[in-house]
């Protein structure tokens, strides 16, 4: 399903070699658990093997551990819950309501049309009766019939107007629901940032704009340091809270023109259109220091989980850049920040 060029299916950017490797792992696993290799199940196990969908992996581990039978209902439930999020449900609902609305409008128009045609025939017959008619009582009867017909037609037209007004209101509600579903489809549920596919789409759009105009565009890739340790020491829930906290911090430091996204598990990204590299570095530094400044505390307790830090890589758009090359340079800068001791911001290498 596509709305405004946005697909509701996840996107994968793994190489052919990686895909082949996943396949070598997926098929024996599905076969071991006697799971049908239909497209839905395959998508579920693909996500499981690539391991970026922690919730799915936990639930699937539990199900496989209990040797639960993989019914088509269970597959559909997992697929909707972890792969295609709630947008499908909202869109199905909107689609259904829209069809109802179209049918109702069609019926109302048909009824009005039929009544108008019948009235036209009546009026033609009545006008024939009036031609050269000198009989006053008869003329009176015909005129009374014409007045009644006109009144009926006016009522039909009023009913149609009311029906169309109601439909217009319903249509406005549907438009709002659609806008909401569109937002949900672009948003990462945990952090409220843009999700990966919306990020890819936005970056593509900005690259096209920046190719045509000589203005600067920067990309930040942010990765939480030793995040596995946070999960291992304080639990996955706490890890999720740290992700949410970091995302909120990012939101506080960027402007309304910047787009912050959850790029992967514990990796985030910010697209900064119309921003020179030194300004992007300055904002990255502010995000880094405000996170590293204070140890994070467990909610409702004085216990500290220590300082959480991030490493950030920054790249700036060059005229021959593709989406991949721009991301790669920011990624490489981020890995240099990690290699250099973490908790720092690094710009791409000068070319
Ligand atoms: N809580 C939580 N953890 C996640 C999520 N997505 C990914 N992770 C975890 O993030 C961790 C990433 O670990 P690594 O890639 O090994 O890197 P790291 O421990 O952050 O270490 P460095 O990046 O080298 O500093 C893994 O343990 C993943 O399970 C999520 O949505 N929630």
Automatic annotation (TrEMBL):
Requisite cofactors: Mg(2+)
GO molecular function: diguanylate cyclase activity
Signal peptide start and end residues: none
Residue ranges the record marks as coiled coil: 157-184
CDD domains in UniProt: GGDEF (cd01949)
SMART domains referenced in this protein's UniProt entry, alphabetically: GGDEF (SM00267)
Protein name: diguanylate cyclase
């Amino acid at each position: 399903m596509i709305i405004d060029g946005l697909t509701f299916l996840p996107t994968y950017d793994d190489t052919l070699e990686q895909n082949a490797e996943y396949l070598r792992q997926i098929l024996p696993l599905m076969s071991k658990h006697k799971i049908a290799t239909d497209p839905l199940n395959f998508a579920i196990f693909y996500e499981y093997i690539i391991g970026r969908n922690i919730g799915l992996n936990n639930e699937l581990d539990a199900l496989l551990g209990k040797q639960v039978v993989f019914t088509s209902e269970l597959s559909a439930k997992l697929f909707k819950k972890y792969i295609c999020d709630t947008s499908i449900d909202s869109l199905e609902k909107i689609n259904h309501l829209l069809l109802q609305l179209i049918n109702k409008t069609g019926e109302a128009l048909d009824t009005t049309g039929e009544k108008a045609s019948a009235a036209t025939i009546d009026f033609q017959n009545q006008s024939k009766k009036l031609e050269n008619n000198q009989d006053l009582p008869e003329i009176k009867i015909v005129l009374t019939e014409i007045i009644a017909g006109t009144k009926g037609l006016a009522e039909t037209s009023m009913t149609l107007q009311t029906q169309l007004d109601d439909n217009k209101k319903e249509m406005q509600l549907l438009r709002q629901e659609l806008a909401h579903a569109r937002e949900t489809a672009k948003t990462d549920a945990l952090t409220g940032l843009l999700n990966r596919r919306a990020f890819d789409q936005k970056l593509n759009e900005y690259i096209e704009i920046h190719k045509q105009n000589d203005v600067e565009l920067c990309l930040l890739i942010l990765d939480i340091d030793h995040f596995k340790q946070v999960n291992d020491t304080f639990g996955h829930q706490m890890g999720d809270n740290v992700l949410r906290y970091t995302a909120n911090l990012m939101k506080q430091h960027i402007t309304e023109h910047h787009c912050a996204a959850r790029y992967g598990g514990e990796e985030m990204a910010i697209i900064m259109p119309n921003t020179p590299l030194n300004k992007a570095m300055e904002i990255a530094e502010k995000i880094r220091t405000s996170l590293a400044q204070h140890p994070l505390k467990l909610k409702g307790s004085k216990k500290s989980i220590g300082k959480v830090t991030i490493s950030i890589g920054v790249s700036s758009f060059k005229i021959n850049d593709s989406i991949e090359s721009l991301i790669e340079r920011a990624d490489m800068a981020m890995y240099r920040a990690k290699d250099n001791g973490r908790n720092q911001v690094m710009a791409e290498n000068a070319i």
